[in-house]
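dumping these here so i dont lose them again. two proteins, back to back, each one seq then structure tokens. dont judge the mess
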Amino acid sequence: MHKVLIIDDEEKLRNLLSRIIALEGYEVQEASNGKAGLKKLESYDIDVILCDVKLPDASGVQLVKDIKTKYPMVETIVMTAYGNIPDGVQAMKNGAFDYITKGDDNNKIIPLLARATEKATLQKRISALEKQVNKKYSFENIIGKSKAILQAVELAKKVAPTDTSVLLLGETGTGKEVVAQAIHQESQRKNKSFVAINCSAFGKDILESELFGYKAGAFTGAVKDKKGLLEEAHNGTLFLDELGEMSLELQAKLLRVLETGEFIKVGDTKSTKVNVRLIAATHKDLLKEAEQGHFRSDLYYRLSVFQIILPALKDRINDIELLAKYFLTMYTDKANKKIPGIGTAYLERLKLHSWPGNIRELKNVIERSVILHTSGELSIDSLPMEILQHTTSSDGKILSAFDLSSVEQLHIRKVLNYTNGNKTETARLLNIALTTLYRKLEEYNIH
């Protein structure tokens, strides 16, 4: 039910309006002066205010401005006395939705109230969506407690409020775009565009057109002017993924943008100015690429002012369970399934896999398991064969699900995990001598 607040010192008029509006299905609150009205706003989630211009303790015109500053999603309709139209006009300049003249516009109150309520509701929905977006792309959404990922996030948080270019390094699938979005979201540019492009997905000519745009007639098929992604990201952030795949020619144009804030569109003769923050990412060693002549060293040093290395999933084993549970919740919601959790054997298999595809690969594995799930917790039956047949131990050896020593190694790890590393208790539960356990730990390189 929508809530309306009436602020007016005329009790009879206030009560009459209250009854009329309540009959239309609104919940109505009343206040006899400005101070009481502000108190009501603190206690109730008001959608629309009907406010008199003349109040005993305040000017309704100024009150509109104060309310709009503190409660921007609340709409205010000002009620003016006959012949006092200038007050209504000034109130609208201060942020009022509209104004009505007392006595003359009584038949307009309900339709006007409906429109104001509709606008207030829409604004609240937009605000709720913005909060969801902010949460989705915030640093809080980067999952992990391992030292390596926490250090990377801490660096990202420090550089986010600045306009410094950032170079994200790490294997494919480690979440570089997620970090880039979080940096943008925590920057002064968060209300502007975040534009992303994968440089490896386009050839040189197409990538140039996409980035810099072109003028009509620049080439066959260019029938009208096109904005490039640099212009789309004006005052915002441009994220260039797999920057190491960009041609040397385009690297030179990109360097000019970083140094001057200007570029020339394809087929144009004059410069276009932009204000863009650049975040770049690559899985390549750009310094080595520069030494070999495959990447411009001047661009590398311009970008590498602030580097953040994102760890591979195999280097953050303790985060696998957190990530798996997060993806499980995500895909069970999408599939409308109820899965109580992840089985221990399933989780152990995940921890022993080498994850060449990193977080992206884990995400795909969990999605597959949810699709194949029939009952109970996720079990190893739903894992793909490459994980069942070949997992990697901490010393880099390939383990097979059908090899006896691999099974023994997995079981020892499982019991060690259960006892929190207590070797005496582990030997007791395994029903073997402590010396035997130490020998097997050394044999399997388990620490």
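---- next one ----
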Amino acid sequence: MKKGTAILISVIFIVSLAAIAFADETRKGTVKGVDTKAGTITFCPEGTTKDMTLKADKSVDLDKVKPETKVEVTLDNNTVKGIKEMKKPKAPVGC
């Protein structure tokens, strides 16, 4: 019984690690430039001053991405799988 439990726990642990390894990563930052011909964007993550050049997946429409836009990018192995523009917070209404 103990051996079976240990094996089950080991399998669950390995599957959990594999899921983490293949998970997409999201990062917030600013688009500094777009090269539609090359299929890349220049991206500066929040909290840094270093720009990154990222390859965009074919499913990403780079024509809709504008420089100096605050975005949240979804990455998979440094390939942009999605770009979502971050909306500016609305000013509070009332007193």
